[in-house]
Amino acid sequence: MRKFISxxxxxxxxxxxxxxxxxxxxxxxxxLNPTQVQQxxxxxxxxxxxxxxxxxxFTKSAFWLAIKADTNNLNQKLLIGNAHINLxxxxxxxxSGSVLKxxxxxxxxxxxxxxxxxxxxxxxxxxxxxxxxxxxxxxxESLQLYAEVLPDELFHRKAMNENLITGLLWGIIALxxxxxxxxxITVREKLYLYYVLYILTGSLWIIADKGYGYQxxxxxxxxxxxxARPVFNTLATIMxxxxxxxxxxxxxxxxxxKPIWVVKAVSLILSIIxxxxxxxxxxxxxxxxxxxxxxxxxxxxxxxxxxxxxxRQKNPQAxxxxxxxxxxxxxxxxxxLVHSGGNGSVLKxLSNYGIQTGLIIEVxxxxxxxxxxxxxxxxxxxxxLLEVNRKQKELTERIIETQELERKxxxxxxxxxxxxxxxxxxxxxxxxxxxxxxxxxVFKLKKAGExxxxxxxxxxxxxHTLTPLAIEKYGFKNSITDLIKGINSTDKIKVEYIIIGFDxxxxxxxxMQNDLYRxxxxxxxxxxxxxxxxxxxLQLVEDEDRISIIVEDNGIGMPEEAGIKNGIxxxxxxAKINYFQGFIEISKKKEGGLMIIIEIPVKTK
Length: 605
What we know:
- By secondary structure, the chain is α+β, with helices and mostly antiparallel strands.
- It has 16 helices and 15 strands.
- It has helices spanning 2-17, 34-42, 152-187, 190-210, 212-217, 222-225, 228-248, 257-276, 282-312, 316-339, 345-434, 439-466, 469-474, 476-488, 510-531, 568-579, and strands at 22-27, 47-48, 53-59, 62-68, 76-80, 87-94, 97-104, 120-124, 131-137, 141-151, 494-500, 535-542, 546-553, 583-588, 594-601.
- The protein is rod-shaped, with a radius of gyration of 46 Å.
């Protein structure tokens, strides 16, 4: 409460100070000197500066401000609320004459200003009867003039508040810039680079417009001080349009694509002209600024038409961009009206404070749009990855199917053609043996018959390995049963089995049957060759969504030195299981031996 009362009191003091009004006079000849101006002031030719604001727009005149010195209120400052005035001459005038105290403006280095402030600040330290005269010269350009007299305490408080708000606003913009750089580095998409460049060029334009650029970035470059705003304005226009085109996905098929490129090209040419044009800009400024206004209006119209086109195409990014650009369009229109000589409290507010707020609102909404676009990008990538995986799996299935067909052809030829011919040869040898009395010939023929039987059996085994014919003839369940019976008949190991399911042959299951058969056969072969087990239990269970294979033995386990764990057989088993997106678990039993658990999902249509 005390702070509020003190602040109110301070404002009352400040307004009592302003009782010494600020007066203004237009100098259309550009030739009035301080003595003549003092005489005109004494003759009442000046008029009061209305509400401390004056906005002639584009002007060919110079203007004089006059303030009567008030020794009852010392430590005052005259604040000129425009950071871009070419020439300012500050005089103290009295009956003895006029003394030039300060000469400053954009045509001079920043250090020549009376105070280290982004605006023009002049200390009022005259005597009773003195008059402060300030010549403001920005002829040939647009002038918006704001002036007020403030006591030191109020001036410093106002500067602190302004610095606090400015720091917060630029802090937000800096965070957005960092976020945009992070997105560009992460995604490597040019959209985010254009986003960063747009915010950067827009921010540089604001810094130049508010006078901070001349204060901190180029204080010794008066040549650039009067050119920074149009240069950054045109560059920001280029990046604004470039970002918009990529953000909403505008292509060459759009009817507005070429006009936008024309505007970008003209903006780039104007930027180069503003930067490189030698000498004083004033003789050419009217034409150049009129072109800037035309470019600005064309930019807004093309953006509106492009967004309308994309909205009709139901592009969600266009809505984000429309909402984000709305505040900036309001400010830009207000800026054009202000430079054209418009007035009013709303225009003054937008001209002084609207652009930072508009830019922040814009980038915040754009961040939501970028986040939405990034999420859509991720979803599209995921969908694309799933599609690639699906096509890869289909291709793998076709390759496997082709391999199975080729195996079946070879197996059929081995079994039916070569096998039958070997069997016929064996029969013929047997019939010859029965009719020969020579013991040596009988012995040789018997050996030949044994070789033929061995070759026939080998061909049969190769045929069954390539494609288990028993599955096709008798079904998967019976083929597993025959396999186990064949192993048990060797008397090397006793294999017990439990088979649940597999009563019907499902089309969705048939591509897996041959591989399942090979997996079980390889597991049993490994146990026979390496485990030294005398007993083995095979459990094979078919559920609705999976197939479970459990194999247990009472052997010596799986020593590391045996090389089974990394062997070719187990590697083939693992590869088949991985293809079917199953898993395998191998564990040692407490009582000795191994337990192997395999689960393979079944995807039914």
